Amino acid sequence: MNFELKAQDSKSKARAGVLTTAHGEIQTPIFMPVGTVASVKAVHQRELKEDIKAQIILGNTYHLYLRPGTDIINGAGGLHKFMNWDRPILTDSGGYQVYSLSNNNKITEEGVKFKSHIDGSRHFFSPEKSMEIQRNIGADIIMAFDECPPYPSTYEYAKNSMDMTHRWLQRCIDWLKENPELYGFEQSLFPIVQGSTYNDLRKESAETIASHPCDGYAIGGLSVGEPHDEMYAMSDLVCSYLPEDKPRYLMGVGTPANILENIALGVDMFDCVMPTRNGRNGMIFTSEGIINIKNKKWERDFSPLDPNGTSFVDSDYSKAYLRHLFAANEYLGRQIASLHNLRFYLWLVNEAREKIIDGTFASWKNVMVEKLQTRL
Ligand SMILES: Nc1nc2c(CCNCC3CCCCC3)c3[nH]c(NCCc4ccccc4)nc3cc2c(=O)[nH]1
Q: Domain for residue 326, yes or no?
């Protein structure tokens, strides 16, 4: 894997770059659509490629391990073949999904015991188990097995959790050295910085994580309920300790405004379920602001969904029609909303990249952040 910086903004820490993987190039800054169970909900792979122009998608280790299971994915020759996606894939390590999905889990030094949210069966994730699962799924970028502490956490909890995440990282690295790739292409491990919202812990974690020579680095433990200015302060602090010449991935972020603010702080990669999850509830993101399509005000608005939109759905369908589909609980409504929102997120980060390259990012970002938060 190779990361090349193409441009850096003079008035912010924003960067434009190209990340080259075994399954193709990724222009950064980039937003990564979430394909939880080997599918980006309600969207075809063809639409992901041709309309949304997704360059990399996320798979979900926790879900894929529970269903269909790694032996079926392995039988298909890995997730790329199983879901017919020949571009890059990133998988998370599963720990966060256990913490956020299975309400019955127990964390020890060894790993995380949990009960499946599907059928209540008992399971156990350790750093080694997470690496074995991610080896079998075959994603191009795999995440270290970490603990994401809840927000707020006491200093003591955050420190103990961070230290364990650092010990778990070493176990991931050791296991990967002993167990080479299964499908003949490189899989890169991204370690994850923790430390909750404590400056000294964040500095310590960033320096520890950065001491491992990896192809990229992730910022974890944020977008877990902390105020946005805390998120930005931690993101800014951690980026200052991470290598300039490697991509930085801020996990689980976020709203369009969060993404632009973090690009300005030096973050290159983002993922969030928001465009699809909130899209399925009728929340439509546009360059002029946010539309709640279920609102009666759109009932007779026959104008295109988003006149500035760049997905085919933006010109094919009106606001009134989409509102009707949601009112009638028609599946097509969720498909249109998901497609539109994902395209909007990809458009936004591509716009940011172009502004960074032509040197106008900082002023453009300030104007955009205001507009993006307008309720239409
Ligand atoms: N390892 C790890 N993962 C984290 C994640 C999961 C990132 N998305 C993975 C993706 C894999 C495929 C399935 C979906 C998830 C986070 N997500 C958030 N906030 C989301 C906050 C949020 C925002 C909007 C709606 C719901 C939740 N904070 C996160 C912190 C961590 C972390 O420290 N360690």
A: no
Q: How far is the CA of 357 from the centre of ligand 1 (A)?
A: 29
- Which residues have C-beta within 8 Å of that of residue 249, sequence separation ≥ 6? 190, 216, 217, 218, 219, 267, 268, 269, 270, 271
The CATH number of residue 64's host domain is 3.20.20.105
Distance 111 CA to ligand 1 centre (A): 19
Paired tokens of 236: 């800014």
CA of 242 to the centre of ligand 1 (A): 20
Pocket test for ligand 1, best of 223, 230, 231, 238 (most atoms within 8 A of CB): 223
Q: For position 42, what pLDDT does the model report?
A: 78
Q: 272 CB less than 6 Å from ligand 1?
A: yes
Cα 296 to Cα 284, 287, 290, 299, 346: the distances in Å are 15, 21, 15, 5, 29
Q: Please give the Cα distance from 178 to 119 (Å, whole number).
A: 33
Residue 37 is predicted with a pLDDT of 67
As a whole number of angstroms, the distance between CA 14 and CA 16 comes to 7
For residue 370, tell me if it sits in a domain. no
The verdict on residue 54 lying in a domain is yes
Task: Look up the domain containing 204 and give its range.
Answer: 2-271
| Three-class SS state of 232 | helix
User: How many domains, the chain?
Assistant: 1
Q: Give me the pLDDT at residue 53, please.
A: 93
Token pair of 216 as six digits: 């990229």
Residue 229 annotated as catalytic = no
Task: Note the ipTM here.
Answer: 0.99
Tokens coding 332: 């097509």
Residues in the annotated binding site: 92-96, 146, 194, 221
Owner of token pair 């998988």: 91
Give the residue ranges of the chain where pLDDT is below 70: 36-37
For residue 327 the two structure tokens come to 């009112």
With b for 16 or more beta-carbon neighbours within 10 A and e for fewer, the 159-198 pattern comes to bebbebbbebbebbbebbeeeeeebeeebbbbbbbbbbbb
Domain membership of residue 369 (yes or no) is no
